[in-house]
User: What shape does this take?
Amino acid sequence: MALTITAADAYIGLNVIDTEGWEDSDAAKKQRMLNVAERTLNRLYSKYTIPDAAVYEFAAALSVIFSDTMVQAQRGIQSTSISGAVSVSFGVGERKLTQLIPQSCRDIIGAENGVKLSAQRFGRLIP
Assistant: This one.
């Protein structure tokens, strides 16, 4: 099935808890998030079938992460304030797109393909 903003709106409205970032986005930004979500999942899980629902879940997560406030954290800003009245501090800096994929996406892809997918961790174990 082809990914559409209309289908994403319907899916996210029914299945995602935090919809504010998605709903606040204009059509062009929604399309960009769908494009990035689909491309990232297809690249990372190239040997699996990627259901539309997984793309919609990831796009919804991206809409929160790249909201007007949180995009500052993605760019490495550690704190900001508005006229001294509101102060926001961020605990994490910029992360790779693959680190932003929620487990719900992996679960949907895994269910579609009969496998269990978990967050990939790379590195060495030090005894």
User: Anything to note?
Assistant: The beta strands are 79-82, 86-89. Residues 5-113 form one domain. The longest helix spans residues 27-44. The first strand starts at residue 79 and ends at 82.
